[in-house]
Here is the input.
Amino acid sequence: MQRFVVGVLYLTAAVILAAGPAQAASRALTPPLYRDDNGWFQENPNARVSPRADPDYRLPNTTIPTHYDIDLTTMVHEGDRKFTGIVKIHVTFEEATTSIVLHARQLIITEASIQLDTTDTPEDLEQSYEDEREFLTLARTTNTPFAKGSQGVLTVHYNGELRLDNGGFYLSTYNDTNGNVRHLATTQFESTDARHAFPCFDEPAMRATFTITMRHSPSYKAISNMPVNTMESSPGVTVFQTTPNMPTYLVAFIVSDFEYTEGVLNSLPQRIYSRPGTEGDQEWALVSGMLILERLAEYYGVPFALPKIDQAAIPDFAAGAMENWGLATYREEYMLYNKDHSTITTQTNIANIIAHEYAHQWFGNYVAIQWWTYLWLKEGFATLFSYKATDAAYPEWGIWQQFHTDDYQGALNNDAGVSPRPMTHYVQKPQEISRLYDTVSYAKAGSVLNMWNHALTDTVFQRGLHNYLTANNFSAAVEDKLFTAIQIASKEENYEIPAKIEDMMGSWTHQGGYPLLTVKRNYDDGSFSVTQQAFHNNETINSDKSWYIPFNYATQSNADFRDTEATNYLLNVKSVSVGAKLGKEEWLILNKQSTGYYRINYDEQNWKLIINGLIHHPFKIHPRNRAQLMHDAYRFSASNRLNHAILLEMLTYLPSEVEYAPWSTANGIINIYNRYLGGDNDYKVFQEFVAEIVTPIYEKLGINDVPGEHHYQKFTRNVAINMACLAGINSCLKETNDKLKDLVEHDVAIEPNVQSQIYCNGLKQSSNDVFDFVYNKLMDSDDQALRRILINSLGCSQNKQQLDKFVSSSIDHDNELRVQERSTLLSPAYSRGLTGWMACMDFLDKHWDAYGNLNGGFGGTNPLDDAIRGMSSYANNEEQENRLLALVAKVKNSVHASANLEEVVEANFKTNRDWLKINRDPLMSWLISYRSNGGATLAISTLSMVSVILLVVSRLF
Here is the structure.
C-alpha cells in the first residue's frame, strides 16, 4: 500500500535533507509516505508500545473463518449513502465457546444466526458490541458451548452508510463532461476497515475465501478481486468467482460507471478502469502493468495467482494506492497519463507505484503477514521492488538514482532520532497500526533489504525470495520464515556466509536506527580500520547497539564501483581492521553505490583526498556515492562531527556535475541553508555561492523541455531551475516570469515537465491577475496531477493578500477543492518563507476550529495538529515562536490537538535554535572568506573553470 501524509508530515524540516524530483512523486507514498516538490516529508515513528496492551485488541481466536459469502446492495448511482448487506461466514470452532467474537464498525446489525453442520435449523444469536475494540459478540441464548472442532455458517444481516473520509466502503464523486455530479462506491480496507463493509475476522492472518455479490443499478457496473461469474449474474446483480483464501483487508469492490481499456500478456488479462472521458489516458498504466507483472513473476519464479488483474483510478483516494488482490486502486494522478499534458514525473510515478502494488500481489497477498508487527515484511519488499521491477521494465531510465534520493536518504534522515523504532514492532490498536505506515516500514525496510540483496548477491537473494514465497503460499508468515528461506538459498547456491542469516538480518529488524562507520587510515602501511556505533542526529546520545554490517570499498587506483557484493563484515563487533595496501595520496570510499544502510565518516585527510578527486576527476566516483558523500557530510557538519569547510569545499565540485542524484542531494542541502539563512544580513553572500555552483548546469539545461533527452535529465533541469531562481540569477527570474506571463496573456502553453518550476518561481513575482489565473486554473482542472502542481505552486507567492486568499480557500466548502486536498494548502505556503508562514498564522488564529474540522482522511491525524507541528519546524525567530505558542495555548485542550502537541512544538523550536547556533557562524564565515578570495581558497580547479566556460559558450552558439 502506498500511503501519503499531509500537514506536518508534509514538512518536517530540520532533519530533512534529501530533495526529490521537483514535482509530486511516489512515496511518500505514498504513509504512507508523501513527497512533494520540496522532497520527502514523513511521519514520525511512533513511541515504543509494550508487548501486551490492556485490554487485548486481538480477537480471541476461538473461532476461525474459512469462507465468506458477502451480498451487498447499494443505490450509489442516486448518491444514496445507505447500503444493506448479508454476510454468511463459514466458521470452525477451535475451542469450546458459547460466543463468536468478530469485528464490526459503524454497522447496524439487524439479525444474526448460525446454522451448525449438526443441526437442521438455524439458531438465533444474541448480539453485543464493544466500541473501544470494535468487537461484535454473537452469543448463544443457552450456556451450552459450541463444541471444539464443530463447524457452522454464521449469517448476519446489517445496514450501513458509505463513508465520506475515503476509508472502508465509501462514497466518491466526480463531474462528468456536462458538469453533472456522478457518484460511485469504492473500498479502502487496509488495515482495519473491512469491518466497515461487513462483519468479519479483520486480522491479516485470518485468511478465508470470498464469494461476493453486488446488487446495484443496471446502469452501473461492479468489479471486484475476481472475474465476474457470468452464469450467476444478471443485470443489476453481479456475482464474482470465489477468491483464493486471503486476508479481509485485501477484499475490494467498486460500483461505478467507469470505462476500461484491456490488454492481455501471456494469457493474463489486465484492465484499467477510470471515469468516462479518461480512456485515452489509460494506456501507459496498462502497458506498464503488463510489463511489470511479467518481470516480477520472472524474478520470483512464481506465477501470478489470480486469473486477472484490474487497476482502477479513484477520484477521491486518501492513500497513494492499494494492492487489493486482483483489483489495485490508485489516486487518479498515479494512474492516468496523457502524453501531451502529463509530466515525466507522473509517468515515472505511475510505473513506480504500479510496481509497488504489483509486488504486493506476492508479498502481502500470496504470502500474508502474521500480524501488523511485520508490516515491513510486505511494505519493505514493495518499496524495493517498486524500483527493481521498474528498472527491469525500463532499464534506460536509471531509476536507482531516485531510489537513492527518495527512499534511501529519506530513511537515513528519519531513522536517526532519539529513540527510533525497530522494523519489527508490536502494536495492537488501529491507531497504533496506522502509525506503523512510516519511513521505517517502507523506506528503511526497502533500503535494508536492498543492502542484503547486494551484500549476498542477487543470485542468493532471488533464490531466497522464491523459497520464501513457495514455502508460505496462501498463508501468513513472520520474519523468521524469510530468514530461513535465504539461509537455505545460500546453501543451495553454495554461497558462503559469515554468520546465520537470522542473526545478521535480525540485527537490523529488531533494533531501531542504523550505524555510523568511522574509517581511520594508516597512511604508513596502507591499512584502515572501521568502527561502528549507533548514529543519532544528536551526537551526544550514546548507545551500545551493534549490527552485523556488510561493506566493501573502492580506491582511487581501483575505482570500480560495479561489484556491490560484501567483501568485509563487522560481525556484531565494534571494530575491524582491513589490511589494504592503499597509496598515501589516493582516496578510499566505502560502500560502493551506497547500497549499505549506514553513514560513513572518514579521517580529515581522506575527506580532503575525496574532495580533490571530486574536483579533478568526479566521474571516477559513482553518482550515488557522489550524492551520499554530500549527504553524510551535511549531517556530520550539522552535528559537530565534521568541519563545515569539508562540506562547503565538496560543494565546489558541482559545476562539473551532471547527474540527478548528486544535484538533488545538493538541492536539499541548499534548501535547508536557505530556510535558516533567509533573513540573515549576509544572505546575499550565500546566494552568490549558490549562483556560482549552479550556473553551469542551469546554463547547460535551460528552462525549456527538450524532447528525447535522458529520463532523469528532466529531473535535473527542474532542480537547476529552482536553485538558480533561489540564487537570484536574473535570467532565471526573468525567464520563469515571462513564461508564466505568456501563458496568462497569450495562452502560450508551458511544457508539462517544467510547469512546477515556472508556476512556482513565476508566482513569487506575480500580480494579482496572474495569481488569480493560476488559482482559477486549479479550481477548474480535473487533472489531479496538475492540481497537485498548482496547489504546491500557489503557496510560492510572496504576496500576503494572495496567500490569504489561497489558505482561506481550504475551509470554503463551496469551491472545487477535493476532500483530500483541503488539508494540503497550508504547508506549501508556510514552508516558502516568512510571508507565507505569517499568512498561515493569521488564518489559523481566526479559523483554527474550522480548519481542525476538515476531514483528515481515514486513519489520518488532525489537519490543525499537523499544521501547527509543521509550522513549528519553520519558526526561526522569537515573534514566530510567541505567536505559535499562543495558538497552541488556545487549541491544546480541543479535540483537534494531540496530547503532546505543545511538547513537539517546543522541541522543534529548540531544534531550530540549536541549528542556527551550531551552523550559522561557521557557514557564513566560510562563505565570506570564499567570496573575499574570489573562490581561490578552494580553487574550483582549472578543469572545472574550463568546463564552466565551455558550457556557457555552448549556450551562446
Notes: The first helix runs from residue 194 to 197.
